Amino acid sequence: MYEAGWNIVPEYQGRGFGTEVVRLVLAEAARHGGRRAVHAYPSAENAASNATRRNAGFRLLGDRDHVPGAAGFRANDWRYDLVP
Predict the structure, then answer these.
(1) How is the chain split into domains, by residue range?
(2) pLDDT tens, 9-40?
(3) Predicted TM-score of the model (pTM)
(4) How confident is the model at residue 73 (pLDDT cuts 50, 70, 90)?
(5) Rounded distance, CA 11 to CA 84, Å?
(6) Which fold has domain 2-81?
(7) HSE-up of 48 (CA within 13 Å, CB side)?
(8) Alpha-carbon distances of 14 from 29, 52, 63, 70, rounded to whole Å
């Protein structure tokens, strides 16, 4: 799988740029193959970040207490299937 993360600078937040860029990245990842899915692990409390994943077509698998490389961080586990 691929893991994705991103950040939008404050003056561009709330305009849909993040969602559009994520959709483009997902399409490119699907086109190149090699992996079956993309996961993203935003903070469970970050409503805007979670909305971006939902709007880009990710599926929420649930929340996790441990995310690789970020011990003690409560995150949602979002998955986007690159291969149907």
Answers:
(1) 2-81
(2) 999 989 999 999 999 999 999 998 789 999 99
(3) 0.84
(4) confident
(5) 36
(6) Aminopeptidase (3.40.630)
(7) 12
(8) 25, 10, 24, 26
